[in-house]
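Quick review question:
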């Protein structure tokens, strides 16, 4: 996590001071803020600097500097925990959507960390919140072709750099209290080892939904695109998607012991729980991550996975579903089996 925090009280204090809103709208937003269920988030800069207007060129320079640094930090921690050297990694998938850089993050890290020159590099840059789950899926696909290989997945998201104080649209106001900065890494190994196994994956994109979620790049930077209909769109799709995915694996929902759901927002998470009949006990860690860190975009699913690996009471052989949601509108499902 970056060093600075933004609390719920900070949001309440700064909201009416930063955005040019009439008093009645500020009062309405105060109620919405409570319902977002985000108690605390992290950011790479103090809040007083975060809210300053800066040109896109400046915020993108900050994105490059801090995303590479955070990416290296989580990569080193992950490899150290796994007992793997950088030169033993065969493929590197880097994930980020909150800035822009060419060469991509993976090229920077290859030069800084001692990866091999023949490292297979795959930067995922425009998949948004679903990209963390998709990166795990594509790592599993890679291992089907190259058994015994090691794939490192790194996600870094810095949505605080997309803050727009002149944009008073409902979408921007909600995103300003929902998203947090953070980074995570995971090693996906073709050989038997610790951690859950990825048994199967599925990608799905709903056609004619391009305007529901994403970024609009303008001279002032990234502006969030966030449709109010998004939670209901997912609710209408998720049951058939999950049931079809499980049926293909010879399973039913009742056999799933844990749900690693991307908490795109409180209403979205509640809709998925309701539609699939999931008790809160099986999704509580998603709610905990949302409360403690906010929506970390693509990194969120890795934060939730870490929580499940460290705090859950799953037994070896138990089945778990991990799900990411993002622009497109896209859903990524993974069937995991606990080891």
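Suggested answer, residue by residue:
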């Amino acid at each position: 996590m970056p060093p600075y925090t933004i609390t719920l009280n900070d949001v309440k204090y700064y909201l009416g001071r930063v955005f040019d809103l009439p008093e009645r709208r500020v009062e309405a937003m105060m109620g919405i803020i409570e319902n977002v269920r985000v108690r605390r988030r992290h950011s790479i800069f103090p809040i007083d600097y975060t809210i300053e207007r800066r040109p896109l060129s400046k915020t993108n320079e900050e994105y490059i500097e801090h995303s590479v640094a955070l990416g290296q930090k989580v990569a080193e921690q992950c490899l150290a925990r796994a007992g793997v050297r950088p030169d033993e990694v065969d493929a590197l998938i880097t994930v980020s959507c909150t800035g822009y850089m060419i060469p991509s993050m993976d090229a920077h890290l290859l030069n800084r960390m001692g990866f091999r020159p023949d490292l297979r590099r795959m930067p995922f840059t425009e998949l948004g919140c679903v990209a963390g789950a998709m990166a795990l899926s594509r790592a599993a696909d890679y291992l089907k072709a190259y058994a015994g290989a090691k794939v490192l997945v790194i996600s870094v998201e810095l949505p605080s750099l997309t803050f727009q104080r002149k944009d008073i649209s409902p979408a921007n106001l909600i995103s300003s209290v929902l998203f947090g900065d953070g980074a995570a890494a995971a090693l996906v190994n073709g050989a038997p080892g610790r951690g859950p196994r990825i048994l199967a994956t599925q990608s799905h994109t709903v056609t004619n939904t391009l305007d529901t979620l994403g970024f609009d790049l303008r001279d002032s930077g990234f502006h969030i695109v966030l449709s109010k209909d998004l939670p209901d769109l997912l609710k209408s799709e998720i049951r058939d998607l999950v049931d079809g995915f499980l049926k293909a694996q010879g399973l039913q929902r009742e056999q799933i012991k844990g749900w690693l759901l991307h908490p795109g927002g409180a209403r979205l998470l509640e809709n998925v729980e309701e539609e699939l009949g999931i008790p809160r006990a099986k999704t509580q860690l998603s709610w905990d991550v949302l409360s403690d860190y906010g929506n970390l975009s693509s990194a969120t699913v890795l934060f939730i996975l870490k929580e499940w690996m460290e705090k859950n009471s799953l037994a070896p052989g138990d089945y778990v579903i991990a799900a990411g949601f993002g622009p497109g509108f896209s859903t990524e499902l993974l069937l995991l089996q606990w080891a």
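Why it works: The mean pLDDT is 91. The first strand starts at residue 4 and ends at 7.
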